[in-house]
Every structure is written in C-alpha cells, then in structure tokens.
C-alpha cells in the first residue's frame, strides 16, 4: 500500500538522486531544466526537487535523443504536443460525460411528457395579440 502523500508528482528527489535514478549527469538535468524539457519543483533554498514523474520524463527525453536521434528542440515540441493531446483527451472525456448527461435528461423529460398525468400545470408564454380591422370602412353617402 502506497502513502497517499507520496505520489508520482511530489518533488522529493534532489538533483544527485534524480541524476542517478534517471541515468543522466546532473549537468544534463540542469540543461534540460533551462531548456524547459523538465521543470522540477524548487525547495525553499531554490534547489531543484524532482518527482518520480520528472524522472520518467528525463528517461523519455534521453530515449528520444539517443535511440530516435531527435534533437532537443524536436523533443521539446513532441513533449508540448503530448501535453496538449492529454489536455484535449481530458476535455473530450468531460464533454462526452456532459453530453451523455444531457441526452439522459432529454430522454427522461421526453418519457415523462409522453405519459400525461392529468391535473398538471403547463407553462404558457404570454404573447401580445394585435387585431387589425379588416372590415371595409363605412360608406357615409348612404
């Protein structure tokens, strides 16, 4: 059982530990931070603190660089696009849930209206009615 206060996003690892866990040199971690590839948290003394998610990201950056031959600018763009895709997926998930809830509400309302219960008040909009006199004008010569 894991401690709920110690998740993948909690920045707890100092740079030397993060470097060891990721298999990278501390100077490489500093460079990735300057480039915005990985953004670790900061301790009160401004020292970097890496989370487990940061370390996984460092490993992915290294893999893309070494195995795929992608330069750091390309990796940064890939990571930005992956983040955007994740945000859009989350937004789509929420919108799909809202749409399903709206469809369910319409279905419930439709089935309730299909079965009149009697004695029910029906809302009516007020309208103004203008009547034009269409009769011919009276003839004064008669």
Automatic annotation (TrEMBL):
Residue ranges of domain HTH merR-type in the record: 12-81
Residue ranges that the Swiss-Prot or TrEMBL entry lists as coiled coil: 78-105
Taxonomy, superkingdom: Bacteria
Pfam families from the UniProt entry: MerR_1
InterPro entries tied to this protein: DNA-bd_dom_put_sf, MerR-type_HTH_dom, MerR_fam
SUPFAM superfamilies: Putative DNA-binding domain
Keywords: Coiled coil, DNA-binding
Protein known as: Helix-turn-helix transcriptional regulator
Source organism per UniProt: Streptomonospora mangrovi
């Amino acid at each position: 059982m894991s401690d709920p206060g110690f998740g993948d996003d909690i920045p707890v690892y100092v740079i030397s530990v993060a470097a060891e866990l990721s298999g990278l040199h501390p100077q490489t971690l500093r460079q990735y931070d300057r480039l915005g590839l990985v953004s670790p948290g900061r301790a009160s003394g401004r020292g970097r603190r890496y989370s487990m998610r940061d370390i996984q990201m460092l490993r992915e950056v290294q893999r893309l660089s070494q195995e795929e031959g992608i330069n750091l600018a390309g990796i940064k763009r890939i990571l930005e696009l992956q983040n955007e895709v994740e945000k859009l997926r989350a937004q789509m998930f929420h919108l799909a849930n809202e749409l399903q809830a709206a469809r369910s509400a319409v279905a419930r309302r439709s089935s309730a209206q299909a079965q009149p219960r009697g004695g029910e008040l029906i809302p009516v909009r007020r309208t103004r009615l203008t009547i034009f006199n269409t009769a011919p004008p009276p003839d004064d010569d008669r």
